[in-house]
C-alpha cells in the first residue's frame, strides 16, 4: 500500500472530477484524482469498434452549453454540425411513415394543435423554474407528486400528442417510463436546456459533435494533470472528520484536507464511509436511480439515406428505436446511423439473444430507412447498464417526490466532503455541460474556503 498526501482528493475521472481537479490545481492546490476504471472519461468513451470510430457515450453539444463550449475552446477541439439536410421521418401508431420538415411531427391538425399547446404550457412552467433550485418552483411539491404521464393525461385527451411529448422527456432524456418520474423532474430536464422548446428541437439539442470524439475532453484534461490521475483505483473506503479525509483503494491510501466525490449519485453508497454519511445523505442517495437506454450504432458503406433526400432524423413513440439520427463521422465516406432503445423496450430486448436483439433493432431502423438499413458493416450496442462503474444511461433522476424532498441537499457538502456530477447539475443536468459546471462550482467553493 502506497501512501500519499495531497490538498484535495477527487474521486472519479469523468468530465466533472477532471474539471474540478484542473481548477484546484490552477489555484495552486495539490490533487489526486482516483479513478476506478483503467481509462478516464466515465460516460465519455470514444472507441474504435471493428474499424469504426464510435461515440459509445456522450457526444452532442448544444449552443447553450457554454461551460462545455469554453472547455472545447480551451482544449483546442473543433466541432462540426450534425447532418440535417433533407426530410425527417415520423411513424405513427398505425405504422404509417411520413416525411416532414421543421419541429412538429406530421400528425392530424387537432393533434398538432394539442402538441403546440402542451409545449406552450410546459414552456410557461419551465420559465417559472430556476434550474438550480427546482424545489423553489411555486408548485414544486404538487408537481413532484404527480407522474409526468398523469400530468399529460390531465392536460389533453389526445393520445398521440401525449405519446409524442412524453417521448421527448421519457425515452429521449430521462430514459425512464413517463409513469416513473414526476412532472417536476420533467420540468427540471427542460429547464436545464433553457426551455421545453429547446429540448424538442433536435437541431438545437443535438447540434454539434467534436471532431475526433468527445472523450478527448477528459483525455486532454487528464493529460494536463499527468501523474495526478491514478487509474484502476476504485475508492473502497473514505475515512473523514473535520480534520481531513483518507481515501483507500486496493493499492493507495491518500490523505487530504478535502475530497470531491465526482461519481454518479447511485454509486456513492458503494464507498464505505467511516463514520457513515449523515442520515440525510444516506436517505437521499436511495431516492435516485439511473435511467436505461441502449445506444445503437450502425455503420454502412455510404450514408445511403441522403441519396433519398433524407436527413437521417427519425422519430416514433411507437417504434422499438424511438429516435435515430445521421451520426456520420467528420469527413468519413461511410454513413453511420445512431438509434436509441429506451427503458422498458430496452429491458425487453435484453431478454433476447444478441442476434435476435440485433435483428429486432435493425428491423426497426429499416421501418424508417428501408431494407438497406438491415445490413450494416459495423453494428454495436452501447450497454451502460452492464458497466459496473456507471450502471445505466444516460444519468440519474429522482423517484416520485424525491426532487422536492431531497434535491436541495444533493450538492450540500458534508464536513470535508463535496459532491459533483452531471446528475446533480441544474443547467446542463444529465449532460457534459452540467458535469463541468458543478465540477467548477465544487472547486471554487474549496478555493474560496481556503482563501478565508
Ligand atoms: P461520469 O459517470 O462520467 O464519471 C464518474 C467517474 O467516476 C467514472 O469514470 C467512474 O468510473 C468513476 N467512479 C465511480 N465510482 C468510483 C469509485 N468508487 N472510485 C473511483 N472512481 C469511481 N451528454 C451530453 O452532453 N451529450 C450527449 O450527447 C450525451 N449522450 C450520452 C449518451 C450515453 C450513451 C451516455 C451514457 C451519456 C450521455 N450523455 C451525454 C451524458 C454525459 O455523458 C454525462 O452526463 C457525463 O459524461 C457525466 O460526467 P460525470 O463526470 O458527471 O460522471
Give an overview in words:
The structure is a single chain. With about 450 residues, the protein is of the alpha/beta class. It folds into three domains: about 1-45 and about 215-275 and about 415-450, FAD/NAD(P)-binding domain (3-Layer(bba) Sandwich), CATH 3.50.50; about 45-65 and about 75-85 and about 205-210 and about 290-385, Polyamine Oxidase, Chain A, domain 2 (Alpha-Beta Complex); about 105-200, Orthogonal Bundle (Guanine Nucleotide Dissociation Inhibitor, domain 1). The protein has 16 helices and 23 strands. The protein has helices at about 15-25, 65-75, 110-125, 140-145, 150-155, 160-175, 185-190, 195-200, 200-205, 215-225, 280-285, 305, 345-350, 355-370, 400-405, 430-450; strands at about 1-5, 10, 30-35, 45-50, 50-55, 80, 85-90, 95-100, 210, 230, 235-240, 245-250, 250-255, 260, 270-275, 290, 295-300, 310-315, 325, 335-340, 380-385, 395-400, 415-420. Strands 8-7-18-19-20-17-21 form a seven-stranded mixed β-sheet. Strands 1-13-12-11-15 form a five-stranded mixed β-sheet, with no helix packed on it. α1 packs parallel to α16 and α3 (about 110-125) crosses α6 (about 160-175). It is globular, with a radius of gyration of 22 Å. The model has no long low-confidence stretch (mean pLDDT about 95). Dihydroflavine-adenine dinucleotide binds near residues 34, 44, 59 and 431. Dihydroflavine-adenine dinucleotide (FDA) binds near residues 34 and 270.
Figure out the total of helices.
Answer: 16
CATH superfamily annotation of the largest domain: FAD/NAD(P)-binding domain
Q: N-to-C terminal Cα separation, in Å? A: 35 Å
Main sheet properties: 7 strands, mixed
Oligomer: single chain
Strand content: 15-25%
CATH third-tier fold name of the largest domain: FAD/NAD(P)-binding domain
Radius of gyration: 22 Å
CATH architecture of the largest domain: 3-Layer(bba) Sandwich
Give the strand order of the largest sheet, numbering strands 1, 2, ... along the chain. Answer: 8-7-18-19-20-17-21
Amino acid at each position: 500500500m502506497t501512501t500519499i498526501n495531497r490538498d484535495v482528493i477527487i474521486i472519479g475521472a469523468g468530465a466533472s472530477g477532471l474539471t474540478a481537479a484542473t481548477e484546484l490545481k490552477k489555484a495552486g492546490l495539490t490533487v489526486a484524482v482516483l479513478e476506478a476504471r483503467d481509462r478516464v472519461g466515465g460516460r465519455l468513451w470514444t472507441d474504435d469498434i471493428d474499424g469504426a470510430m464510435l461515440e459509445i457515450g456522450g457526444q452532442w453539444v448544444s449552443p447553450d452549453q457554454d461551460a462545455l463550449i469554453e472547455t472545447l475552446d480551451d482544449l483546442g477541439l473543433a466541432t462540426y454540425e450534425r447532418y440535417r439536410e433533407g426530410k425527417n421521418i415520423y411513424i405513427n401508431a398505425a405504422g404509417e411513415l411520413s416525411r416532414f420538415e421543421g419541429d412538429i411531427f406530421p400528425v392530424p391538425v387537432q393533434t398538432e394543435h394539442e402538441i403546440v399547446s402542451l409545449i406552450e404550457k410546459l414552456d410557461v412552467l419551465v420559465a417559472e423554474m430556476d434550474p438550480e433550485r427546482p424545489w423553489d418552483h411555486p408548485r414544486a411539491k404538487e408537481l413532484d407528486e404527480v407522474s409526468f404521464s398523469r400530468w399529460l393525461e390531465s392536460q389533453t385527451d389526445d393520445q398521440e400528442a401525449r405519446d409524442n411529448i412524453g417521448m421527448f422527456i421519457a425515452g429521449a432524456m430521462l430514459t425512464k417510463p413517463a409513469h416513473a418520474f414526476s412532472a417536476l423532474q420533467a420540468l427540471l430536464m427542460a429547464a436545464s436546456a433553457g426551455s421545453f422548446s429547446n429540448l424538442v428541437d433536435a437541431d438545437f439539442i443535438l447540434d454539434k459533435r467534436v471532431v475526433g470524439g468527445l472523450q478527448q475532453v477528459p483525455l486532454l484534461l487528464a493529460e494536463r494533470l499527468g501523474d495526478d490521475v491514478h487509474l484502476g483505483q476504485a475508492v473502497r473506503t473514505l475515512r473523514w472528520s473535520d480534520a481531513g479525509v483518507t481515501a483507500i483503494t486496493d493499492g493507495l491510501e491518500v490523505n487530504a484536507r478535502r475530497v470531491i466525490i465526482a461519481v454518479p449519485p447511485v454509486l456513492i453508497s458503494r464507498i464505505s464511509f467511516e463514520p457513515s454519511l449523515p442520515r440525510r445523505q444516506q436517505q437521499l442517495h436511495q431516492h435516485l436511480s439511473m435511467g436505461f437506454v441502449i445506444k445503437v450504432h450502425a455503420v454502412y458503406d455510404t450514408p445511403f439515406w441522403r441519396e433519398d433526400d433524407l436527413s437521417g432524423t427519425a422519430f416514433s413513440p411507437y417504434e422499438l428505436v424511438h429516435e435515430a439520427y445521421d451520426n456520420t463521422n467528420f469527413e468519413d465516406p461511410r454513413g453511420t446511423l445512431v438509434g436509441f432503445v429506451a427503458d422498458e423496450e430496452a429491458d425487453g430486448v435484453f431478454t433476447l439473444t444478441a442476434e435476435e436483439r440485433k435483428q429486432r433493432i435493425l428491423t426497426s431502423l429499416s421501418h424508417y430507412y428501408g431494407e438497406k438499413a438491415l445490413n450494416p458493416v459495423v453494428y454495436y450496442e452501447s450497454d451502460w447498464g452492464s458497466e459496473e462503474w456507471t450502471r445505466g444511461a444516460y444519468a440519474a433522476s429522482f423517484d416520485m417526490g424525491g426532487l422536492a424532498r431531497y434535491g436541495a441537499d444533493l450538492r450540500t457538502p458534508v464536513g470535508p466532503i463535496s459532491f459533483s456530477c452531471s446528475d446533480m447539475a441544474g443547467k446542463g443536468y444529465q449532460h457534459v455541460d452540467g458535469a463541468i459546471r458543478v465540477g467548477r462550482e465544487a472547486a471554487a467553493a474549496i478555493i474560496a474556503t481556503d482563501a478565508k
